[in-house]
Specification:
227 residues, alpha+beta, Jelly Rolls, Arc Repressor Mutant, subunit A, 2 domains, four-stranded antiparallel beta sheet, 45% helix
C-alpha cells in the first residue's frame, strides 16, 4: 500500500512524516479474515496495533458466559493501541463482522514509530482524547429515549465509516444484538425502532448486500439531537 493512500485512509497518519510511513509500512504484516472469525483474542492484546483497511469488526467484552459488544469499527480505524500503551491484560476480543483486510504492526515497532515522529505522537494523543470524549458522550445519553440513542449510534457510524452513494450513506448491516449493545438498549427496542425508521423511509436495509442505507441523514441527525 502506498504511503499517500495509507495516510488518506487513516486520519492518525494525516500529519505523519512520509519517511515514518514508509518505514511503518515496510514492517507491517497483512491479514485477511472472513466474517465471524476472531481477529484478536483476549490473550493477544498488547502484541500489536491493527489497522482496518477494509471491512467491519466488533470489540467484545467477555465476562463468564456473558458477551457484550463494546464498539463497532470500520475501515480507517485501528485497535490494540491502548493495551500497548498501558501494558495491561484485556478481557476482550475482536471479531470480524464482514470479511476484513488488516495491517498489523508489532508493539515494539509501533512504539518506535511514535518516538520517531513527534507529529504522529501528538496526533495519537488527540485521537485518544477524542475517543474518551465519545465515551463520555455515550454516558451522557444513558437516560435519553431509545430512539434518540439509536439515532446517535447510526449517525456516528455513518460519519466515521459510512460510504456515500447517490442517495444515501451506506454502512454495514450490523446485527441487531450488536447494535443494541453499543447503543445500550434492548434488542427488542432496536428491532422496533429500525422497523419504524424503515417505515418512515429514513433507512433502508438490504440483507442481500449486507448493507444499511441511511437515506434521510437530516432527520436522523435531528432525532439524535445534533441539529
Amino acid at each position: 500500500m502506498q504511503t499517500e493512500a495509507f495516510s488518506e485512509l487513516f486520519p492518525l497518519f494525516s500529519a505523519a512524516n512520509p519517511e515514518t510511513l514508509e518505514w511503518l509500512l515496510s514492517v507491517a504484516t497483512e491479514h485477511e479474515y472472513p466474517a465471524n472469525r476472531a481477529v484478536l483474542m483476549e490473550d493477544a492484546w498488547g502484541n500489536a496495533v491493527y489497522f482496518l483497511i477494509s471491512g467491519w469488526v466488533k470489540v467484545r467484552r467477555l465476562a463468564g458466559d456473558k458477551v457484550v459488544t463494546l464498539a463497532i469499527l470500520g475501515k480507517g480505524d485501528f485497535f490494540g493501541e491502548m493495551a500497548i500503551l498501558d501494558e495491561s491484560p484485556r478481557s476482550t476480543d475482536v471479531i470480524a463482522l464482514s470479511p476484513v483486510h488488516l495491517l498489523s504492526v508489532s508493539a515494539q515497532r509501533f512504539i518506535q514509530t511514535l518516538f520517531k515522529d513527534a507529529q504522529l505522537h501528538h496526533r495519537m494523543l488527540q485521537l485518544m482524547v477524542r475517543r474518551l470524549r465519545q465515551t463520555n458522550f455515550r454516558f451522557q445519553l444513558r437516560n435519553r429515549p431509545p430512539a434518540v440513542k439509536l439515532a446517535n449510534t447510526l449517525v456516528a457510524l455513518a460519519e466515521n465509516y459510512g460510504e456515500k452513494t447517490e442517495k444515501a450513506i451506506q454502512i454495514y448491516n450490523i446485527p441487531l444484538k450488536d447494535l443494541a449493545d453499543v447503543t445500550d438498549i434492548s434488542t427488542e427496542e432496536v428491532t422496533k425502532i429500525m422497523a419504524k425508521l424503515v417505515e418512515k423511509g429514513w433507512v433502508k436495509i438490504d440483507s442481500q448486500r449486507q448493507a444499511i442505507y441511511l437515506i434521510n441523514m437530516k432527520q436522523l441527525t435531528h432525532l439524535a439531537g445534533h441539529a
